[in-house]
Design goal:
Blueprint: H1 3-15, E1 28-32, E2 48-52, E3 54-56, E4 59-60, E5 76-79, H2 86-90, H3 93-103, E6 113-117, H4 122-133, E7 137-142, H5 147-153, E8 157-160, E9 173-178, H6 187-192, E10 196-204, H7 214-225, E11 233-238, H8 242-250, E12 257-261
Parallel strand pairs: 6-7, 6-9, 7-8, 9-10, 11-12
Antiparallel strand pairs: 1-2, 2-5, 3-4
Helix pairs in contact: 3-4
Amino acid sequence: MNEPLIQKFILQLIFGFGRPRNPILGMVTSGIVERKGKDVTLFEVGDEVFAYGSISPTKRRFGSYAEYICLPENWNLALKPVNLSFEEAAAIPYGGLLATHLLKKTSINKGDNVLIYGASGSIGTMVIQLAKNLGAHITSVCSGRNFELVKTLGSDKVIDYTIENAETKLERYKYVIDAVGYSKSSKLKEKSKKALTPNGKYISIDHNTPLTPKEAFLNLKRLAEQDKIRPVIDSIYPLEKMAEAHKYVELGHKRGNVVIKIN
């Protein structure tokens, strides 16, 4: 079985074969604690929190596409960063945890050249910021309309993957980080896999099952509170327009995150 098929099988194992294992989807949430169990000690009713419904590949809980969700207190659940809105807090965990997973495979030193393919998406925008915090010199690959965005996040150079002969702009990189995976490719992407320095490394989001440990979740909270990372929100939809939001995301041109708001 080749790697894309293995990835597809793993996803179906998690989400369900043929139809969703849980009919209410969604793993990311933020809101106010409405009620707590008798043994809960970390939170109180009225606390403003945010969460990611996965603590490991075998411990996942869906259901955030709803007014209420119940999560164990020791999962990826914490008080919301005080400097962020509920919408901003909800836009952190998915991209932030997957970006952390990618960067765990690196050992970036100050000044290392890093290329990020898919830099303007929910994962890519977090990779930029986290890698910049480590001292990387970043080249972002995205469409020209997103150049200003990725520059404000910390990109030093940009490459427009839509232009002819974009691959001629490649340099040599200590790390090439693919934040979109096998679902999208281009001549530039294929060339970038070999645009490495000696001992350089190509890392894809589709390599291995992403890990989402609590320490990584809490680190994102800390960095957000220190203004070292900021979530990027493309648009906000009301819950009743969930299908419309998914259609927009599936076009593949969103910047950062699409958030669902429950009134």
